[in-house]
Amino acid sequence: MSERNVGGFFQKDADAIFKPMGTFPLACQFSSLIIDNFLGGVLAVQLFMYYRYHGGDKLWLKCLVGYLGVMNAFVTIFYWAYQSYLFVENFGNFLPWLEVRWLAQMPWIDGITVSAVQLFFAYRAYLLLNRNKFVLILITCMVLGALGGAIGLTIVFGGQSSLLGATNSGPTLITWLALTTAADITIAVCIITGLLRSKSGWTHTDKLVIKLIRLTFEAQLLPTCLAVAYLIEWIITPASLLGATFQALQCKTYTVGFLITLLSRTSLLSDSEHRRTTKGAQVYGMSSRGPIEVAVQVETHVNENKFTVTPAGDEFQSTYKLEDNDSTSDIELGHSNPSQARLHNPKPYPAQPYATSAIPDGF
After folding, report:
1. Does the keyword field hold Iron (predicted)?
2. Which of 68, 142, 250, 325 has the smallest count of CB within 10 Å of its CB?
3. Rounded CA gap, 196 and 212, in Å?
């Protein structure tokens, strides 16, 4: 029975390659598993919070969140299976570490997950820039190019006989990571530009814009830095397992940043409610003036309206008499301000029944 080999390398060759490295290969594999599981726990909490507080979102957005959750769960299970293969089934054997069939599957999984997040942020940038179609088309082309590079890397790297053939997959890997980074930077610049244009000079609005800009950095800075670090690491040591550690974290970091953006609406709404319930002044710009105080005084006057009807030959004559307790003068009927006068007929008439009513001033 022939001895097992990977790309012409046998067990003694694998030992000669990995044993001089000491614990470095083991640290790379374990660190990726530990960090992936930690971010998986963070992601699980985020998913719970999202569906609890934002269940009223549009259907396409809820489906996108569900899709990303399923893909990240698949990545975690995939890494559990991979680590079990290395440390349980082949414990103490370095030959399986030269295999590429496991690692070659990660680029396309990352690609279809990360591209969904980037397209969401591209749509957000499109809306913030007044539906600028050029920006949307440009970012979409970058994202699709990065996705093509990820799929191409899976094909090229998967066709290598061993891990040491990773240098042959350079063009596709550089295409994937370079376009991913370019798309991230373009998205961040467009979103920040759109937010800065939204400044109105009002203190509360400007504070909200600053919070959203900071949130954009928090959500996208880590994944972008991770992609850049992966690219630099591969250029320096293409056959190192450290690159696999960076690659293992891409799905989680992009999805966690995506959910940070969605869940930020909860805190922003809470801050808005808090401001509405406080008595702070809404001031313009950086002015230090206090709130405008408006005092409204309402007075109600009680007027007595008396109507007297007396016969005068074949016709009736009527006299209207208005008595106002606040009036200070007597004038003839037709005065421009009757609410402060007493109107009467100069000739006395016998007392007649009258009616009274209360009306508000200015009615």
Report:
1. no
2. 325
3. 10
- Contact present, 281 and 291 (Cβ < 8 Å): yes
Burial label for 2, CB within 10 Å (0-12, 13-18, 19+), is: exposed
CATH number of the domain within which 226 lies: 1.20.1070
Question: How many folded domains does the chain comprise?
Answer: 2
Helical spans, DSSP H, in 129-241: 133-158, 170-197, 203-236
Helices marked H in 54-169: 59-84, 106-128, 133-158
Q: Are 106 and 190 in the same domain?
A: yes
Write the pLDDT tens digit of every residue in 86-128: 999 888 888 888 999 998 999 999 999 999 999 999 999 999 8
Query: Tens of pLDDT along 71-83?
Result: 999 999 999 999 9
Do residues 211 and 204 touch, judged by C-beta distance below 8 A? no
C-alpha torsion 61→66→68→74, nearest 10:
-170
Token pair, residue 45, equals 């909490």
> Does residue 105 sit in helix, strand or coil?
helix
Structure tokens at 156: 């090229």
Query: Does one domain contain both 218 and 118?
Result: yes
d(CA 306, CA 326): 17
As to burial, measured by CB atoms within 10 angstroms (0-12 exposed, 13-18 middle, 19+ buried), residue 125 is buried
